[in-house]
Records
---
Amino acid sequence: MPNQLLHKADTKGFRYFEQLLAPVDVTLNGSNSWDIKVKDERLFRRVLRDGTLGLGEA
Protein backbone atom coordinates (compact mmCIF):
# COMPACT_ATOMS: atom_id res chain seq x y z
CA MET A 1 0.00 0.00 0.00
CA PRO A 2 2.87 2.52 0.42
CA ASN A 3 2.80 3.36 -3.31
CA GLN A 4 -0.89 4.25 -3.43
CA LEU A 5 -2.73 7.15 -1.83
CA LEU A 6 -5.01 6.15 1.01
CA HIS A 7 -8.74 6.53 0.54
CA LYS A 8 -10.89 8.52 2.94
CA ALA A 9 -12.28 5.62 4.96
CA ASP A 10 -9.13 3.47 5.09
CA THR A 11 -8.15 4.17 8.70
CA LYS A 12 -9.43 5.74 11.88
CA GLY A 13 -6.30 7.92 11.89
CA PHE A 14 -7.13 9.20 8.43
CA ARG A 15 -10.60 10.26 9.53
CA TYR A 16 -9.25 11.89 12.72
CA PHE A 17 -6.67 14.00 10.88
CA GLU A 18 -9.13 14.80 8.11
CA GLN A 19 -11.49 16.32 10.68
CA LEU A 20 -8.63 18.11 12.42
CA LEU A 21 -7.45 19.77 9.19
CA ALA A 22 -10.88 20.59 7.70
CA PRO A 23 -11.28 24.02 9.41
CA VAL A 24 -8.08 25.28 7.75
CA ASP A 25 -9.08 24.00 4.29
CA VAL A 26 -6.45 21.26 4.13
CA THR A 27 -7.65 17.94 2.74
CA LEU A 28 -5.81 14.65 2.96
CA ASN A 29 -5.09 13.48 -0.60
CA GLY A 30 -7.02 16.45 -1.97
CA SER A 31 -6.43 18.16 -5.30
CA ASN A 32 -5.16 21.53 -4.03
CA SER A 33 -1.43 22.25 -4.00
CA TRP A 34 -1.48 22.74 -0.21
CA ASP A 35 -3.25 19.45 0.52
CA ILE A 36 -1.32 16.67 2.22
CA LYS A 37 -0.71 13.46 0.26
CA VAL A 38 -0.64 10.32 2.43
CA LYS A 39 0.75 7.11 0.97
CA ASP A 40 1.41 5.19 4.18
CA GLU A 41 -1.09 4.89 7.04
CA ARG A 42 1.78 4.64 9.57
CA LEU A 43 2.06 8.43 9.25
CA PHE A 44 -0.87 8.97 11.60
CA ARG A 45 0.53 6.81 14.39
CA ARG A 46 3.93 8.46 13.98
CA VAL A 47 2.52 11.98 14.26
CA LEU A 48 0.45 11.07 17.32
CA ARG A 49 3.47 9.45 18.97
CA ASP A 50 6.21 11.94 18.05
CA GLY A 51 4.39 15.19 17.28
CA THR A 52 5.94 17.67 14.87
CA LEU A 53 9.25 15.79 14.84
CA GLY A 54 7.44 12.66 13.65
CA LEU A 55 5.59 14.66 11.01
CA GLY A 56 8.79 16.21 9.71
CA GLU A 57 10.65 12.92 9.60
CA ALA A 58 7.76 11.10 7.94
Note: The CA atoms of residues 43 and 58 lie 6 Å apart.
---
Amino acid sequence: MQEWISDASSSAGAGERHAPGAEHEEPMREGAAIAGLRAGILRFLQRGPATAHGRRLLRQLVTIILLLPAAWLVWQWTHALLGLPHALGPNPPEWTHRFTGRLAVELLLATLATSSLARLLGWRSLLLLRRRLGLISALYMTLHVANYLFLDRALAWEEIAGDLTKRPYIILGATAFLATWPLVLTSTDSAIRRLGGARWRRLHRLVYLVLAAAIAHSLWQMKAVEPRPVIFAVIAAGLFAERVRTFRRRRPRRSPVG
Protein backbone atom coordinates (compact mmCIF):
# COMPACT_ATOMS: atom_id res chain seq x y z
CA MET A 1 0.00 0.00 0.00
CA GLN A 2 2.76 2.36 0.93
CA GLU A 3 4.57 1.44 -2.24
CA TRP A 4 1.47 2.21 -4.36
CA ILE A 5 1.11 5.64 -2.77
CA SER A 6 4.77 6.36 -3.34
CA ASP A 7 4.60 5.35 -6.98
CA ALA A 8 1.44 7.36 -7.53
CA SER A 9 2.96 10.45 -5.97
CA SER A 10 6.11 10.24 -8.04
CA SER A 11 4.16 9.69 -11.23
CA ALA A 12 1.85 12.60 -10.36
CA GLY A 13 4.87 14.80 -9.76
CA ALA A 14 6.35 13.73 -13.05
CA GLY A 15 3.07 14.52 -14.73
CA GLU A 16 3.08 18.02 -13.25
CA ARG A 17 6.62 18.58 -14.42
CA HIS A 18 6.03 17.32 -17.92
CA ALA A 19 2.38 18.18 -18.61
CA PRO A 20 2.24 19.48 -22.19
CA GLY A 21 1.61 23.25 -22.38
CA ALA A 22 2.03 23.83 -18.63
CA GLU A 23 4.93 26.20 -19.21
CA HIS A 24 2.71 28.33 -21.50
CA GLU A 25 -0.20 28.77 -19.06
CA GLU A 26 1.29 31.75 -17.19
CA PRO A 27 2.12 33.80 -20.32
CA MET A 28 -1.35 32.99 -21.66
CA ARG A 29 -2.96 34.25 -18.47
CA GLU A 30 -0.86 37.42 -18.61
CA GLY A 31 -1.80 37.93 -22.25
CA ALA A 32 -5.49 37.48 -21.43
CA ALA A 33 -5.19 40.01 -18.58
CA ILE A 34 -3.53 42.57 -20.86
CA ALA A 35 -6.14 41.98 -23.57
CA GLY A 36 -8.90 42.42 -20.99
CA LEU A 37 -7.33 45.66 -19.76
CA ARG A 38 -7.08 47.00 -23.30
CA ALA A 39 -10.69 46.06 -24.01
CA GLY A 40 -11.79 47.77 -20.80
CA ILE A 41 -9.90 50.97 -21.65
CA LEU A 42 -11.32 50.99 -25.17
CA ARG A 43 -14.84 50.38 -23.86
CA PHE A 44 -14.39 53.24 -21.39
CA LEU A 45 -13.17 55.58 -24.14
CA GLN A 46 -16.11 54.63 -26.33
CA ARG A 47 -18.87 54.76 -23.71
CA GLY A 48 -17.54 56.49 -20.61
CA PRO A 49 -18.77 55.68 -17.11
CA ALA A 50 -21.90 53.56 -17.06
CA THR A 51 -23.79 55.65 -14.48
CA ALA A 52 -24.65 59.33 -14.10
CA HIS A 53 -22.77 59.34 -10.80
CA GLY A 54 -19.67 57.99 -12.54
CA ARG A 55 -19.89 60.63 -15.26
CA ARG A 56 -20.21 63.35 -12.66
CA LEU A 57 -17.17 62.05 -10.78
CA LEU A 58 -15.17 61.94 -14.02
CA ARG A 59 -16.00 65.58 -14.77
CA GLN A 60 -15.12 66.64 -11.24
CA LEU A 61 -11.81 64.78 -11.33
CA VAL A 62 -10.85 66.33 -14.67
CA THR A 63 -11.84 69.78 -13.40
CA ILE A 64 -9.58 69.40 -10.36
CA ILE A 65 -6.67 68.26 -12.54
CA LEU A 66 -7.11 71.17 -14.95
CA LEU A 67 -7.20 73.68 -12.09
CA LEU A 68 -3.97 72.41 -10.53
CA PRO A 69 -1.80 74.75 -12.67
CA ALA A 70 -3.86 77.72 -11.43
CA ALA A 71 -3.42 76.59 -7.82
CA TRP A 72 0.31 76.16 -8.40
CA LEU A 73 0.48 79.66 -9.90
CA VAL A 74 -1.26 81.16 -6.87
CA TRP A 75 1.19 79.33 -4.63
CA GLN A 76 4.18 80.67 -6.56
CA TRP A 77 2.83 84.22 -6.50
CA THR A 78 2.30 83.93 -2.75
CA HIS A 79 5.96 83.00 -2.39
CA ALA A 80 7.02 85.85 -4.67
CA LEU A 81 5.00 88.46 -2.76
CA LEU A 82 6.39 87.23 0.56
CA GLY A 83 9.94 87.37 -0.73
CA LEU A 84 10.34 83.59 -0.64
CA PRO A 85 11.96 81.45 -3.37
CA HIS A 86 9.63 80.93 -6.33
CA ALA A 87 9.64 79.56 -9.89
CA LEU A 88 8.35 82.67 -11.69
CA GLY A 89 11.73 83.90 -12.87
CA PRO A 90 13.12 87.43 -12.66
CA ASN A 91 9.97 88.91 -14.25
CA PRO A 92 6.91 87.19 -12.69
CA PRO A 93 4.28 89.07 -14.76
CA GLU A 94 5.97 88.12 -18.04
CA TRP A 95 6.38 84.50 -16.92
CA THR A 96 2.73 84.37 -15.85
CA HIS A 97 1.65 85.90 -19.15
CA ARG A 98 3.36 83.18 -21.16
CA PHE A 99 2.24 80.40 -18.82
CA THR A 100 -1.47 81.30 -18.85
CA GLY A 101 -1.48 81.97 -22.61
CA ARG A 102 0.08 78.60 -23.33
CA LEU A 103 -2.43 76.79 -21.10
CA ALA A 104 -5.34 78.61 -22.73
CA VAL A 105 -4.28 77.52 -26.23
CA GLU A 106 -3.49 73.96 -25.16
CA LEU A 107 -6.91 73.50 -23.56
CA LEU A 108 -8.62 75.14 -26.53
CA LEU A 109 -6.92 72.64 -28.83
CA ALA A 110 -7.95 69.83 -26.48
CA THR A 111 -11.56 71.08 -26.58
CA LEU A 112 -11.70 70.80 -30.35
CA ALA A 113 -9.75 67.55 -30.37
CA THR A 114 -12.43 65.83 -28.27
CA SER A 115 -14.94 66.20 -31.10
CA SER A 116 -12.48 65.04 -33.75
CA LEU A 117 -11.37 62.00 -31.74
CA ALA A 118 -14.98 61.09 -31.01
CA ARG A 119 -15.76 61.17 -34.74
CA LEU A 120 -12.60 59.45 -35.97
CA LEU A 121 -12.03 56.84 -33.26
CA GLY A 122 -15.45 56.53 -31.66
CA TRP A 123 -14.17 57.78 -28.28
CA ARG A 124 -17.53 59.25 -27.30
CA SER A 125 -16.61 59.51 -23.63
CA LEU A 126 -14.34 62.48 -24.46
CA LEU A 127 -17.44 64.51 -25.28
CA LEU A 128 -18.28 64.43 -21.58
CA LEU A 129 -15.22 66.61 -20.97
CA ARG A 130 -15.60 69.08 -23.84
CA ARG A 131 -17.51 71.71 -21.90
CA ARG A 132 -15.11 71.59 -18.93
CA LEU A 133 -12.11 71.90 -21.21
CA GLY A 134 -13.62 74.91 -22.97
CA LEU A 135 -14.59 76.71 -19.78
CA ILE A 136 -11.23 76.22 -18.11
CA SER A 137 -9.49 77.31 -21.31
CA ALA A 138 -11.54 80.52 -21.05
CA LEU A 139 -10.46 80.85 -17.41
CA TYR A 140 -6.77 80.73 -18.32
CA MET A 141 -7.39 83.13 -21.20
CA THR A 142 -9.02 85.55 -18.75
CA LEU A 143 -6.03 85.24 -16.41
CA HIS A 144 -3.77 85.89 -19.40
CA VAL A 145 -5.60 89.12 -20.28
CA ALA A 146 -5.91 90.22 -16.63
CA ASN A 147 -2.17 89.70 -16.15
CA TYR A 148 -1.47 91.98 -19.12
CA LEU A 149 -3.91 94.70 -18.05
CA PHE A 150 -3.25 94.78 -14.31
CA LEU A 151 0.28 93.50 -13.73
CA ASP A 152 2.09 94.23 -16.97
CA ARG A 153 0.48 97.57 -17.85
CA ALA A 154 -1.14 98.53 -14.50
CA LEU A 155 -4.20 99.80 -16.41
CA ALA A 156 -2.13 102.52 -18.10
CA TRP A 157 -4.51 103.00 -21.01
CA GLU A 158 -2.14 105.18 -23.03
CA GLU A 159 0.45 102.39 -22.96
CA ILE A 160 -2.19 99.84 -23.86
CA ALA A 161 -3.34 101.98 -26.81
CA GLY A 162 0.28 102.29 -27.91
CA ASP A 163 0.64 98.51 -27.74
CA LEU A 164 -2.33 98.09 -30.05
CA THR A 165 -0.59 100.14 -32.74
CA LYS A 166 2.94 98.84 -32.20
CA ARG A 167 2.00 95.20 -31.61
CA PRO A 168 -0.94 94.25 -33.83
CA TYR A 169 -0.87 90.68 -32.52
CA ILE A 170 -2.46 92.05 -29.35
CA ILE A 171 -5.56 92.86 -31.43
CA LEU A 172 -5.72 89.20 -32.44
CA GLY A 173 -5.45 88.16 -28.80
CA ALA A 174 -8.22 90.59 -27.86
CA THR A 175 -10.37 89.19 -30.68
CA ALA A 176 -9.91 85.66 -29.36
CA PHE A 177 -10.73 86.78 -25.82
CA LEU A 178 -13.87 88.71 -26.76
CA ALA A 179 -15.14 85.95 -29.05
CA THR A 180 -14.78 83.46 -26.21
CA TRP A 181 -17.38 85.10 -24.00
CA PRO A 182 -20.49 84.36 -26.10
CA LEU A 183 -19.41 80.71 -25.89
CA VAL A 184 -18.90 80.86 -22.13
CA LEU A 185 -22.23 82.58 -21.49
CA THR A 186 -24.15 80.05 -23.59
CA SER A 187 -22.41 76.92 -22.31
CA THR A 188 -25.25 75.89 -19.99
CA ASP A 189 -28.03 73.40 -20.74
CA SER A 190 -30.62 76.16 -20.27
CA ALA A 191 -28.88 78.31 -22.91
CA ILE A 192 -28.97 75.40 -25.36
CA ARG A 193 -32.71 74.95 -24.77
CA ARG A 194 -33.34 78.68 -25.06
CA LEU A 195 -31.40 79.11 -28.31
CA GLY A 196 -32.35 75.80 -29.84
CA GLY A 197 -29.87 73.20 -30.99
CA ALA A 198 -29.30 74.56 -34.51
CA ARG A 199 -28.76 78.18 -33.45
CA TRP A 200 -26.57 77.11 -30.55
CA ARG A 201 -24.34 75.05 -32.85
CA ARG A 202 -24.01 77.95 -35.30
CA LEU A 203 -23.03 80.29 -32.47
CA HIS A 204 -20.46 77.87 -31.12
CA ARG A 205 -18.67 77.75 -34.44
CA LEU A 206 -17.06 80.90 -33.06
CA VAL A 207 -14.63 78.53 -31.38
CA TYR A 208 -12.82 78.22 -34.72
CA LEU A 209 -12.39 81.99 -34.88
CA VAL A 210 -11.13 81.94 -31.29
CA LEU A 211 -8.58 79.24 -32.05
CA ALA A 212 -7.41 80.85 -35.32
CA ALA A 213 -6.95 84.24 -33.63
CA ALA A 214 -5.16 82.69 -30.65
CA ILE A 215 -2.77 80.72 -32.88
CA ALA A 216 -2.05 83.77 -35.05
CA HIS A 217 -1.49 85.80 -31.85
CA SER A 218 1.12 83.25 -30.72
CA LEU A 219 2.88 82.99 -34.08
CA TRP A 220 3.00 86.73 -34.80
CA GLN A 221 4.80 87.63 -31.58
CA MET A 222 7.60 85.11 -32.10
CA LYS A 223 10.98 86.83 -32.41
CA ALA A 224 12.57 83.57 -33.57
CA VAL A 225 11.18 80.20 -34.59
CA GLU A 226 9.84 78.48 -31.48
CA PRO A 227 8.65 74.87 -31.67
CA ARG A 228 5.63 75.14 -29.40
CA PRO A 229 3.57 77.75 -31.36
CA VAL A 230 4.44 75.98 -34.61
CA ILE A 231 3.25 72.65 -33.19
CA PHE A 232 0.05 74.34 -32.01
CA ALA A 233 -0.49 75.73 -35.52
CA VAL A 234 0.02 72.32 -37.14
CA ILE A 235 -2.44 70.67 -34.73
CA ALA A 236 -4.97 73.45 -35.31
CA ALA A 237 -4.63 73.05 -39.09
CA GLY A 238 -5.28 69.33 -38.74
CA LEU A 239 -8.38 69.96 -36.63
CA PHE A 240 -9.69 72.53 -39.11
CA ALA A 241 -9.10 70.13 -42.02
CA GLU A 242 -10.95 67.32 -40.22
CA ARG A 243 -13.87 69.62 -39.47
CA VAL A 244 -14.14 70.82 -43.08
CA ARG A 245 -14.03 67.23 -44.31
CA THR A 246 -16.81 66.26 -41.88
CA PHE A 247 -18.92 69.26 -42.94
CA ARG A 248 -18.59 68.34 -46.61
CA ARG A 249 -19.59 64.75 -45.93
CA ARG A 250 -22.68 65.80 -44.00
CA ARG A 251 -23.79 68.41 -46.51
CA PRO A 252 -26.58 67.00 -48.69
CA ARG A 253 -25.53 66.46 -52.27
CA ARG A 254 -27.52 68.14 -55.00
CA SER A 255 -29.09 65.76 -57.45
CA PRO A 256 -28.02 66.37 -61.07
CA VAL A 257 -30.45 68.45 -63.07
CA GLY A 258 -32.28 66.48 -65.73
Note: The chain has one domain: 41-249.
---
Amino acid sequence: MQDIDGLVESVNNLAAHSKRVSSSLGARALVLGKFLEVATPHLTIAQCSVIGQAFKRGIEDVMALMDDTALPQEFHSELLSLTNTIAADLEGQSGRAGR
Protein backbone atom coordinates (compact mmCIF):
# COMPACT_ATOMS: atom_id res chain seq x y z
CA MET A 1 0.00 0.00 0.00
CA GLN A 2 2.88 2.36 0.76
CA ASP A 3 4.21 1.84 -2.76
CA ILE A 4 0.87 2.90 -4.22
CA ASP A 5 0.66 5.92 -1.93
CA GLY A 6 4.19 6.91 -2.91
CA LEU A 7 3.37 6.51 -6.58
CA VAL A 8 0.21 8.59 -6.24
CA GLU A 9 2.18 11.28 -4.41
CA SER A 10 4.85 11.28 -7.14
CA VAL A 11 2.21 11.61 -9.86
CA ASN A 12 0.53 14.46 -7.96
CA ASN A 13 3.87 16.24 -7.53
CA LEU A 14 4.65 15.84 -11.22
CA ALA A 15 1.21 17.18 -12.17
CA ALA A 16 1.64 20.18 -9.87
CA HIS A 17 5.08 20.90 -11.32
CA SER A 18 3.75 20.64 -14.88
CA LYS A 19 0.94 23.03 -14.02
CA ARG A 20 3.42 25.58 -12.61
CA VAL A 21 5.66 25.32 -15.66
CA SER A 22 2.70 25.59 -18.07
CA SER A 23 1.34 28.58 -16.17
CA SER A 24 4.71 30.31 -16.28
CA LEU A 25 5.08 29.71 -20.02
CA GLY A 26 1.52 30.87 -20.63
CA ALA A 27 2.11 34.08 -18.67
CA ARG A 28 5.32 34.78 -20.59
CA ALA A 29 3.59 34.20 -23.91
CA LEU A 30 0.72 36.50 -22.93
CA VAL A 31 3.04 39.33 -21.85
CA LEU A 32 5.31 39.04 -24.89
CA GLY A 33 2.33 38.84 -27.25
CA LYS A 34 0.77 41.96 -25.76
CA PHE A 35 4.12 43.76 -25.96
CA LEU A 36 4.46 42.91 -29.66
CA GLU A 37 0.88 43.99 -30.31
CA VAL A 38 1.43 47.37 -28.65
CA ALA A 39 5.03 48.08 -29.72
CA THR A 40 5.06 46.99 -33.35
CA PRO A 41 2.77 49.76 -34.69
CA HIS A 42 5.19 52.37 -33.31
CA LEU A 43 8.20 51.07 -35.23
CA THR A 44 9.51 52.89 -38.28
CA ILE A 45 9.98 51.14 -41.62
CA ALA A 46 13.73 50.97 -41.00
CA GLN A 47 13.26 49.55 -37.51
CA CYS A 48 10.84 46.88 -38.76
CA SER A 49 13.31 45.88 -41.46
CA VAL A 50 16.30 45.64 -39.12
CA ILE A 51 14.32 43.83 -36.41
CA GLY A 52 12.75 41.45 -38.94
CA GLN A 53 16.12 40.46 -40.40
CA ALA A 54 17.70 40.00 -36.97
CA PHE A 55 14.67 38.01 -35.79
CA LYS A 56 14.86 35.64 -38.77
CA ARG A 57 18.62 35.13 -38.27
CA GLY A 58 18.07 34.45 -34.58
CA ILE A 59 15.38 31.87 -35.27
CA GLU A 60 17.57 30.20 -37.91
CA ASP A 61 20.42 30.01 -35.38
CA VAL A 62 18.15 28.47 -32.74
CA MET A 63 16.75 25.95 -35.22
CA ALA A 64 20.28 24.96 -36.29
CA LEU A 65 21.23 24.35 -32.65
CA MET A 66 18.12 22.22 -32.15
CA ASP A 67 18.63 20.01 -35.22
CA ASP A 68 19.84 17.09 -33.10
CA THR A 69 17.23 17.53 -30.37
CA ALA A 70 14.16 15.32 -30.48
CA LEU A 71 11.14 17.49 -29.78
CA PRO A 72 7.44 16.84 -30.40
CA GLN A 73 5.93 17.88 -33.73
CA GLU A 74 3.69 20.33 -31.85
CA PHE A 75 6.80 22.24 -30.73
CA HIS A 76 8.09 22.61 -34.27
CA SER A 77 4.65 23.49 -35.59
CA GLU A 78 4.11 26.21 -32.97
CA LEU A 79 7.64 27.56 -33.43
CA LEU A 80 7.17 27.95 -37.18
CA SER A 81 3.65 29.33 -36.85
CA LEU A 82 4.61 31.98 -34.32
CA THR A 83 7.81 32.84 -36.21
CA ASN A 84 5.86 33.33 -39.44
CA THR A 85 3.20 35.42 -37.68
CA ILE A 86 5.76 37.77 -36.14
CA ALA A 87 7.79 38.02 -39.36
CA ALA A 88 4.63 38.81 -41.35
CA ASP A 89 3.59 41.42 -38.80
CA LEU A 90 6.98 43.13 -39.05
CA GLU A 91 6.85 42.99 -42.85
CA GLY A 92 3.31 44.37 -42.81
CA GLN A 93 4.33 47.24 -40.56
CA SER A 94 7.34 48.04 -42.73
CA GLY A 95 5.07 48.17 -45.77
CA ARG A 96 2.74 50.80 -44.32
CA ALA A 97 2.85 54.20 -45.97
CA GLY A 98 4.06 57.27 -44.12
CA ARG A 99 6.37 55.53 -41.71
Note: The chain has two domains: 1-42, 43-99.
---
Amino acid sequence: MGNKQTVFTREQLEAYQDCTFFTRKEIMRLFYRYQDLAPQLVPLDYTSYPDVKVPYELIGSMPELKDNPFRQRIAQVFSEDGDGHMTLDNFLDMFSVMSEMAPRDLKAYYAFKIYDFNNDDSICAWDLEQTVTRLTRGELSAEEVSLVCEKVLDEADGDHDGRLSLEDFQNMILRAPDFLSTFHIRI
Protein backbone atom coordinates (compact mmCIF):
# COMPACT_ATOMS: atom_id res chain seq x y z
CA MET A 1 0.00 0.00 0.00
CA GLY A 2 1.15 3.52 -0.68
CA ASN A 3 3.47 2.45 -3.53
CA LYS A 4 1.21 3.72 -6.29
CA GLN A 5 3.07 6.30 -8.34
CA THR A 6 1.22 9.53 -9.04
CA VAL A 7 1.73 10.96 -12.51
CA PHE A 8 -0.59 13.97 -12.06
CA THR A 9 -2.26 15.65 -9.13
CA ARG A 10 -6.04 15.42 -9.02
CA GLU A 11 -6.18 19.11 -9.96
CA GLN A 12 -3.95 18.57 -13.00
CA LEU A 13 -6.09 15.70 -14.24
CA GLU A 14 -9.27 17.72 -13.74
CA ALA A 15 -7.73 20.65 -15.62
CA TYR A 16 -6.78 18.37 -18.52
CA GLN A 17 -10.31 16.98 -18.58
CA ASP A 18 -11.74 20.51 -18.58
CA CYS A 19 -9.66 21.70 -21.52
CA THR A 20 -9.74 18.56 -23.70
CA PHE A 21 -12.37 16.14 -24.95
CA PHE A 22 -10.82 13.26 -23.00
CA THR A 23 -11.60 11.13 -19.99
CA ARG A 24 -9.00 10.55 -17.27
CA LYS A 25 -8.24 7.15 -18.76
CA GLU A 26 -7.64 8.65 -22.22
CA ILE A 27 -5.45 11.40 -20.74
CA MET A 28 -3.33 8.78 -19.01
CA ARG A 29 -3.08 6.73 -22.20
CA LEU A 30 -1.92 9.82 -24.11
CA PHE A 31 0.55 10.71 -21.36
CA TYR A 32 2.15 7.27 -21.69
CA ARG A 33 2.24 7.66 -25.49
CA TYR A 34 4.04 10.99 -24.97
CA GLN A 35 6.38 9.49 -22.39
CA ASP A 36 7.16 6.51 -24.66
CA LEU A 37 8.38 8.91 -27.38
CA ALA A 38 11.25 10.10 -25.17
CA PRO A 39 11.47 8.07 -21.94
CA GLN A 40 14.85 9.60 -21.06
CA LEU A 41 13.36 13.10 -21.37
CA VAL A 42 9.80 12.79 -20.05
CA PRO A 43 9.53 12.00 -16.32
CA LEU A 44 6.84 9.68 -14.97
CA ASP A 45 5.98 12.28 -12.32
CA TYR A 46 4.34 15.42 -13.73
CA THR A 47 3.11 16.78 -10.40
CA SER A 48 5.88 19.40 -10.36
CA TYR A 49 5.02 20.64 -13.88
CA PRO A 50 8.33 19.79 -15.59
CA ASP A 51 9.40 21.99 -18.50
CA VAL A 52 9.79 19.27 -21.12
CA LYS A 53 9.45 19.36 -24.90
CA VAL A 54 9.63 16.28 -27.09
CA PRO A 55 11.50 17.11 -30.33
CA TYR A 56 9.61 17.24 -33.62
CA GLU A 57 11.67 14.36 -35.02
CA LEU A 58 10.04 12.06 -32.45
CA ILE A 59 6.56 13.62 -32.75
CA GLY A 60 6.64 13.35 -36.55
CA SER A 61 7.68 9.69 -36.41
CA MET A 62 4.63 8.60 -34.38
CA PRO A 63 2.48 6.03 -36.20
CA GLU A 64 -0.45 8.47 -36.08
CA LEU A 65 1.50 11.13 -37.99
CA LYS A 66 4.41 9.54 -39.85
CA ASP A 67 2.46 8.99 -43.09
CA ASN A 68 0.53 12.26 -42.92
CA PRO A 69 1.81 14.72 -45.54
CA PHE A 70 0.97 17.55 -43.10
CA ARG A 71 2.79 16.09 -40.07
CA GLN A 72 5.30 18.93 -39.87
CA ARG A 73 2.62 21.63 -40.20
CA ILE A 74 0.43 19.87 -37.63
CA ALA A 75 3.31 19.79 -35.15
CA GLN A 76 4.22 23.41 -35.89
CA VAL A 77 0.65 24.63 -35.40
CA PHE A 78 0.18 22.81 -32.11
CA SER A 79 3.62 23.62 -30.65
CA GLU A 80 3.77 26.83 -28.67
CA ASP A 81 6.91 28.10 -30.43
CA GLY A 82 5.89 26.94 -33.92
CA ASP A 83 8.96 24.69 -34.15
CA GLY A 84 7.14 21.36 -33.83
CA HIS A 85 8.67 20.53 -30.43
CA MET A 86 5.80 19.71 -28.08
CA THR A 87 5.07 20.00 -24.41
CA LEU A 88 2.59 17.55 -22.93
CA ASP A 89 -0.06 20.30 -23.07
CA ASN A 90 0.63 20.80 -26.81
CA PHE A 91 0.46 17.03 -27.37
CA LEU A 92 -2.88 16.72 -25.55
CA ASP A 93 -4.26 19.75 -27.44
CA MET A 94 -3.29 18.20 -30.77
CA PHE A 95 -4.95 14.89 -29.98
CA SER A 96 -7.99 16.64 -28.51
CA VAL A 97 -8.61 18.78 -31.61
CA MET A 98 -8.03 15.77 -33.85
CA SER A 99 -10.33 13.54 -31.77
CA GLU A 100 -13.75 12.41 -32.92
CA MET A 101 -15.28 14.43 -30.07
CA ALA A 102 -13.98 17.83 -31.20
CA PRO A 103 -16.62 20.02 -32.88
CA ARG A 104 -16.47 20.85 -36.58
CA ASP A 105 -15.74 24.57 -36.03
CA LEU A 106 -12.71 23.80 -33.84
CA LYS A 107 -11.39 21.30 -36.38
CA ALA A 108 -11.96 23.81 -39.19
CA TYR A 109 -10.07 26.51 -37.28
CA TYR A 110 -7.03 24.26 -36.86
CA ALA A 111 -7.22 22.90 -40.41
CA PHE A 112 -7.17 26.52 -41.58
CA LYS A 113 -4.05 27.20 -39.48
CA ILE A 114 -2.38 24.04 -40.84
CA TYR A 115 -3.09 25.01 -44.46
CA ASP A 116 -1.97 28.63 -43.87
CA PHE A 117 1.68 27.80 -44.56
CA ASN A 118 2.90 31.41 -44.55
CA ASN A 119 1.04 32.20 -41.30
CA ASP A 120 -0.64 35.36 -42.63
CA ASP A 121 -4.14 34.43 -41.37
CA SER A 122 -5.44 33.69 -44.84
CA ILE A 123 -5.02 30.92 -47.38
CA CYS A 124 -3.55 32.36 -50.56
CA ALA A 125 -2.75 30.65 -53.86
CA TRP A 126 0.73 29.72 -52.58
CA ASP A 127 -0.75 28.08 -49.46
CA LEU A 128 -3.19 26.17 -51.67
CA GLU A 129 -0.33 25.02 -53.91
CA GLN A 130 1.49 23.67 -50.85
CA THR A 131 -1.69 21.92 -49.70
CA VAL A 132 -2.55 20.37 -53.07
CA THR A 133 1.04 19.25 -53.66
CA ARG A 134 1.06 17.48 -50.28
CA LEU A 135 -2.40 15.97 -50.74
CA THR A 136 -1.48 14.56 -54.14
CA ARG A 137 2.03 13.63 -52.96
CA GLY A 138 3.55 15.51 -55.89
CA GLU A 139 1.75 13.50 -58.57
CA LEU A 140 0.22 16.52 -60.35
CA SER A 141 2.12 18.79 -62.70
CA ALA A 142 2.60 22.43 -61.73
CA GLU A 143 -0.06 23.36 -64.28
CA GLU A 144 -2.56 20.90 -62.78
CA VAL A 145 -1.85 22.14 -59.25
CA SER A 146 -2.37 25.72 -60.41
CA LEU A 147 -5.68 24.79 -62.05
CA VAL A 148 -6.94 23.06 -58.89
CA CYS A 149 -5.97 26.07 -56.78
CA GLU A 150 -7.70 28.44 -59.18
CA LYS A 151 -10.90 26.34 -59.02
CA VAL A 152 -10.80 26.25 -55.21
CA LEU A 153 -10.43 30.03 -55.05
CA ASP A 154 -13.22 30.53 -57.63
CA GLU A 155 -15.51 28.29 -55.60
CA ALA A 156 -14.68 29.31 -52.03
CA ASP A 157 -13.38 32.91 -52.08
CA GLY A 158 -16.54 34.69 -50.91
CA ASP A 159 -15.23 38.25 -51.14
CA HIS A 160 -13.14 37.64 -54.30
CA ASP A 161 -9.90 38.99 -52.83
CA GLY A 162 -7.79 36.10 -54.13
CA ARG A 163 -7.43 34.39 -50.75
CA LEU A 164 -9.55 32.41 -48.31
CA SER A 165 -10.39 33.96 -44.97
CA LEU A 166 -11.24 31.73 -42.02
CA GLU A 167 -14.92 32.41 -42.77
CA ASP A 168 -14.49 31.39 -46.44
CA PHE A 169 -12.69 28.24 -45.33
CA GLN A 170 -15.37 27.34 -42.77
CA ASN A 171 -18.09 27.79 -45.41
CA MET A 172 -16.15 25.50 -47.74
CA ILE A 173 -15.77 22.88 -44.98
CA LEU A 174 -19.53 22.92 -44.36
CA ARG A 175 -19.94 21.57 -47.89
CA ALA A 176 -17.41 18.76 -47.28
CA PRO A 177 -19.30 15.91 -45.60
CA ASP A 178 -16.18 13.78 -45.10
CA PHE A 179 -14.17 16.54 -43.35
CA LEU A 180 -14.96 15.34 -39.82
CA SER A 181 -14.04 11.75 -40.61
CA THR A 182 -10.76 12.66 -42.29
CA PHE A 183 -9.53 15.35 -39.88
CA HIS A 184 -8.92 13.13 -36.89
CA ILE A 185 -6.42 10.86 -35.19
CA ARG A 186 -7.58 7.81 -33.26
CA ILE A 187 -6.03 7.24 -29.85
Note: Residues 10-98 form a domain with the Recoverin; domain 1 fold (CATH 1.10.238.10).
